[in-house]
Amino acid sequence: MSTVQGALDPLVEEQIFASVIKPDHAYRKLNRLINFDEIAGDLKKTYSHLEQPGIPAVRGLKAMLLQFWEDYSDRQMEAAVCENFAIRWFCGFGLTEKTPDHSYFGKFRKRIGTKHLADIFNSINDRLQKEGLFGNIFYFMDASTIITKTALWEERDRAIKDGHDKLNNLVIKEYAFDKEVRWRAKSKKNIWFGYKRHTAVDMRYGLISKTTVTPANVLDYQVVEQICPKQGYIFMDKLYDTKKTDQKIKASGCSPGTIRKNNNPNKNYDLDRWRSHMRMPYEATFSNNYRFLIKIVC
């Protein structure tokens, strides 16, 4: 557990928070728009074991949502909630309170379930939709990583001891604490262990409209139906360039704006340059989700 030593008077503490977290800060606005206590209350009715000593369910819920939005790994989230005043305040931790270590986030996520967490995220978006923050015309679809653990020496050693050549997706569920988590590789140097977040972004304000989480080895185009909006033109990269993806997008009432692969006979280089240009500002949503959060609530 991370901690800040010493104790402060509550009034002094609030003055400190007020001095560094301005009234128009994204997290303050989000806190006013969404009743997180109500959502956490519904969670506790279903999952009575969510509460942990010193960490109410609403704090865990807010931390999980910020981890989604900010695209933090569990260890990055541990550091953020301890060191970032705005995140500490938003999650409900005082300046001198202990904050959870990285293991807490994985356990909390496992208890809720990744699908339920995505459902919560989408229900919050319903509230933001009522505030008129969606344009419902142009969308950007992509996926990003959720790294749950960077080292698996213990698990690997046990697998090898049991006679396996290596620790891979065929045997990982026998050894990992989280049975849904998987390996994924985009290249020889870009390999991670965890989940993948699939997201559709409304391009009016850069607001994430729909999201779902899968094991890391699920391919991007395989979950198009789960995050596809009901209307609009959807910009996608080459990983979505399949006939099935186009069919699913059209069946949902949308038009595919996919950047085509170089070997696709229907590729139009001028059109794809325009599509790439349109996508560029929103790719930041997947490398630094804080930017989109500031845009949507300001």
Can you give me a brief rundown of this structure?
The chain is of the alpha/beta class and 298 residues long. It has helices at residues 10-20, 26-33, 36-46, 57-70, 74-83, 85-91, 102-112, 114-130, 153-161, 224-227, 243-251, 269-279, 284-287, 290-297; strands at residues 138-147, 182-185, 191-202, 207-215, 232-236, 254-258.
Beta-strand content bin: 15-25%
> How many angstroms separate the termini?
33 Å
Query: How many helical stretches?
Result: 14
What structural class do the secondary elements suggest?
A: alpha/beta
Shape: globular
Mean pLDDT: 77
State the order of secondary-structure elements, H for helix, E for strand: HHHHHHHHEHEEEHEHEHHH
- Can you give the helix content as a percent range? 40-55%
* Low-pLDDT residue intervals, each spanning 5 or more residues: 289-298
**Nearest-angstrom radius of gyration?**
21 Å
Extended strand count: 6
Biggest β-sheet: count, sense, barrel?
6 strands, mixed
Total separate domains: 2
